[in-house]
Amino acid sequence: MLPARITILSSDPHLASHVQLRLYNKGCQTSTMGCIDTALGVFYADPPDLLIVDLSADTDSGLDIVSTLRSDSFFSAIPIIGLFNMAKSHTFDWERCPLDDFIGLPLDFNELFSRISLALSRIKRIFDNNPMTRLPGNTSIQKAIEAAIGTSTAVCYIDISHFKPYNDAFGFAHGDEVIRMTARIIFNAVRDSGGGFCGHIGGDDFVCIVPLDRAESVCRTIINHFDIIVLDLFDDETKQRGYYCGTNRKGENENIPLLSVAIGVVPMNMSKLQHTAKVSEVASELKKLAKYSSVSRYVVDNRSS
Question: Mind listing the pLDDT tens digit for each residue in 66-92?
Answer without folding.
Answer: 888 887 766 778 899 999 888 776 677
